[in-house]
Task: structure prediction
Amino acid sequence: MIIAVDFDGVLTPNGHWPEVGEPNTKLFEWLKFYRELGGKLILWTNRTGAALENAVAFCKEQGLEFDTVNKNLPEIMERFNDDGPKVTADLYIDDKAAHVEFRGGGKS
Result:
């Protein structure tokens, strides 16, 4: 299973971009455990340049490393012969997310 996790507002819930803020320690611990079990992690953030480098370094300081940052895992790119603009994951953790499920429809 692949998890894509956002940085601002999630891994650092009280940060004010481009500053980092304090770590969401419970989430960091859970993600580290998940990765130890063989799960794959993508850091999925709008940060670029120095702000992105700071975020990655901050995560490493917390003991969390990612399989990739803002791109698909190599096995996904190989499977689809491309790295599309949207990362492929089984679970997205984002403070701006909403789960929408449409039911019904069809012919009347």
The two ends are 38 Å apart (CA to CA). The first strand starts at residue 2 and ends at 5.
